[in-house]
Amino acid sequence: MNDADVWLIVGLGNPGPAYAGTRHNIGYLVVDELVRRMGGSLKAHKSGRAEVLEGRLAPPGAPAPKVVLGRARTYMNESGGPVSTLAKFYSVDPAHIIAIHDELDIDFGTLRTKFGGGDNGHNGLKSMRASLGTGDFYRVRAGVGRPPGRQDPADFVLGNYSTVERKELPFQIDSAADAVECLIEKGLEETQQRFNR
């Protein structure tokens, strides 16, 4: 798998059942949806630090670049190591990496896609930037909104979605997965026009 158009799509989150339903794990949930669409399942990567699925994201018969779906097996603030290991292993340039992550500054239920930029205090992005040596990769930013009242943002993102949000969550996951597919097939400009509302 070393053709130039390989894409590495990584969902940022924390491993283990205690974190499964938290806002910080939206990246994992979106990768799960993409895995379902690809019709496979994640397997341990030989580095032992990530789970991956290799394949193509496109309707049957449609031309599609190869993609590697990945989830780090480390905590969020150490995501960069496993991501850069996968990027080296599959010969993927940072400009062909898409990170899916939660974003406090965007309202719940909304998405933003962008290329490059800072980490905005997000530990997963901070770790990726440090390990890759650049911030020049794509981001699919799934809004979780700001914590209510004086709640600490760290506690908020590690908390579970509210009952109301849980009803809406499948739509957000679906949209984020669509945005990933659109980014690969159509590029950033069209993806932003369709999904950055």
- The amount of beta strand, in percent, is 15-25%
Q: CATH fold name, please?
A: Rossmann fold
**CATH architecture type:** 3-Layer(aba) Sandwich
CATH superfamily: Peptidyl-tRNA hydrolase
Largest sheet: 7 strands, mixed
Distance between the termini: 35 Å
Query: How are strands sequenced across the largest beta sheet?
Result: 2-3-4-1-5-7-6
Which bin fits the share of residues in helices?
Answer: 25-40%
Residue-averaged pLDDT? 93
Supply the key terms.
globular; 7 strands; Rossmann fold; 197 residues; alpha/beta; seven-stranded mixed beta sheet
Describe what you observe in this structure.
α1 (26-38) crosses α5 (163-186). The chain has a single domain, classed as Peptidyl-tRNA hydrolase (Rossmann fold), CATH 3.40.50.1470. The chain is of the alpha/beta class and 197 residues long. A seven-stranded mixed sheet has the order 2-3-4-1-5-7-6. It is globular. The chain has six helices and seven strands; from the N terminus they run βαβββαββαβααα. β2 and β3 form a beta hairpin. It is an enzyme of class 3 (hydrolase). Keywords: Cytoplasm, Hydrolase, RNA-binding, tRNA-binding. The record marks 102 as: Stabilizes the basic form of H active site to accept a proton.
Question: Topology, please?
Answer:
Elements lengths: L6 E5 L14 H13 L4 E2 L5 E7 L9 E7 L7 H10 L7 E7 L7 E5 L7 H10 L5 E6 L9 H5 L5 H24 L1 H8 L2
Parallel strand pairs: 1-4, 1-5, 5-7
Antiparallel strand pairs: 2-3, 3-4, 6-7
Helix pairs in contact: 1-5, 2-3, 5-6
